[in-house]
Amino acid sequence: MSLPSRLLTREEGTGAHALSGMSQQTKARSATKRFAPAGAVFAVLGCALFVYFVRKAGVGEVWEYMRRLGWGFLIILALSGFRFVVRSSAWMLCFEAPYGLRFRDAFRAYLIGDAAGNIVPLGIVVSEPAKAALVRDRVPLVAGLSAIAIENIFYSLSVALFVFSGAVALLLSFPLSKTLRWTSLGILGGVAVIVPVVFLVLRMQWRILSGMLAALSARGIGRRVLAGRGERVRALEDRVYGFYERNRARFLPILLLEASFHLAGVAEAYVTLYFIFGSPPSILNAFVLESVNRVINVVFKFVPMRVGIDEAGTGMLAKALQLGTATGVTLAIVRKARMLFWTAVGVALLVARGLSLNAVTGEIEETQQEEVLKDSSPQPLENIR
Questions:
Q1: Rg, C-alpha atoms of the chain
Q2: φ, ψ for residue 211 (rounded to 5)?
Q3: Which of 52, 195, 37, 46 is nearest to 122 (CA)?
Q4: Closest of 312, 326, 315, 275 to residue 59, by C-alpha
Q5: Which pLDDT score is estimated for 34?
Q6: 76 or 227, greater pLDDT
Q7: 32-36, 261-265, 294-298, 375-379: which range is least confident on average?
Q8: What is the mean pLDDT of residues 141-152?
Q9: Using CA atoms, how far apart are residues 265 and 202, in angstroms rounded to an integer?
Q10: CA 122 – CA 304 distance, rounded (Å)
Q11: Given this model, what pLDDT does residue 151 score?
C-alpha cells in the first residue's frame, strides 16, 4: 500500500477508510501532544536567548549587516539547496539491490523530513523516520530505514572529522578565553574517543542496541514496550553491517558527498562575511565558524531551529575571532532565514501530496508498532509491493 493511501487526511467514501483516517489522526495527535510540552519550553527559552543576544549585539548593527547581504541571500539559498542535493545523493548510494530511489523521490523526502524535524517539537525523533516513511510507495520501509541509518553513520563520521579539524584550527590560530579553550579541547578529546569506538563497533559487528534491549527485557524492564523489538533492531543491525561488507567501493563516493555538504556550509559562511564586510574574508574564519555551527546543530538538535542557541554560540565565537558579536548573530539569523525558506518548500511539497505534518507523525507512530523487520534478508521488490 502506498504512502499517500496510508496518510489520508480527508474523509473517504467507505467506512473502513474513515475509521482508518480517524485512527491515524488520533495517533498523530497523541504523538504531537507527547512532544509539545518539552518543545514549548525549549522554544520559549530559545526565543528569550534570541532577543537577548540580538539586543546585546545591537539591533541597528545587525539590521545593517542584513541589509548589506541583499541579493547575496540568493547565493546562500543556492548553496544550502546544494547541501540537500548531496545528502539525498548519499542516501541513494546507501540502498542495496534490488532497491533504489530516484533522485527526485529522495530529494523530496529529504526536504519534507527536514521540514518536519524543524517544525515538530523534538523533531530529531521525527525527521529521519519520516524520510523512510515518505518513500514507502517506492521501497519497503525496512530498506528505507536501513539506508537512512547507513547514511547517518557516514554523515556522523564526516561531522566528527570536520569538527575535529575546526577545533584544531581554533586552538592553533586564535587567542581564546579559558572557556573556549577548554571547550575546544573537550571536543578534540570526545572525537578522539568516539571515532575509534565507532570503527571498532562496525568492524567487530557488535549488536549493541539489540543486546541492550535483550538485557533490559531479561531483567523485566519495559518488557511490554520492548516485546518483539529486539529482533527488529537486530535485523536492522544485520542490514547495516551487511552493507559495509558488500559495498566497500561506495565508501569513498559517500564520504566525498558528505564532505561536499560541509564545504558548502563553509562557502555559506564565506559569502555572508563577504557581503557584510564588502571584501574577501578569511577562509579560516569561515571554516571555524561553520565547524562550530555543526557542533551547535548536533548538541542542540532538540531545540526547534536552534533559536537563540545559534545566536549565542556564533555571536560569542565571532567576538573571539575579532569579528564582532553582531557578525556572529547575523550569521545565525541568515541561517534561520534560509532554514525557514527550505522548511516552507518542504511543507509545500507535503501539502502538494495531500498530506500534513500531523499525518506524517501519525504514520511514524503506526510504523513503530508494525512488524516491519521480520526478515533481515532482502526480498524481491515485486513480492513486497
A1: 22
A2: -65, -40
A3: 37
A4: 326
A5: 54
A6: 76
A7: 375-379
A8: 86
A9: 28
A10: 7
A11: 92
What residue has cell string 537512512?
Answer: 148
Question: Can you tell me the distance from the alpha carbon of 213 to that of 20, in angstroms, rounded to the nearest whole number?
Answer: 31
Residue 7 DSSP label: S
Measuring CA to CA, how many Å separate 188 from each of 165, 166, 194, 289, 295?
Answer: 9, 10, 10, 16, 12
- Say which residues have a Cβ less than 8 Å from residue 77's Cβ, sequence separation at least 6: 338, 341, 342
19 Cβ contact list (under 8 Å, min separation 6): none
d(CA 121, CA 36): 6
Is 240:373 a contact under the CB 8 Å cutoff? no
* Contact assessment for residue 98 and residue 332, using Cβ atoms and an 8 Å cutoff: no
As a dihedral over the C-alpha atoms of residue 121, residue 125, residue 131, residue 137, rounded to 10 degrees, the angle is: -100
d(CA 136, CA 123): 20
How far apart, in Å, are the Cα atoms of 115 and each of 22, 128, 223, 286, 319?
Answer: 24, 11, 34, 26, 31
Q: Which three cell numbers stand for residue 180?
A: 573556549
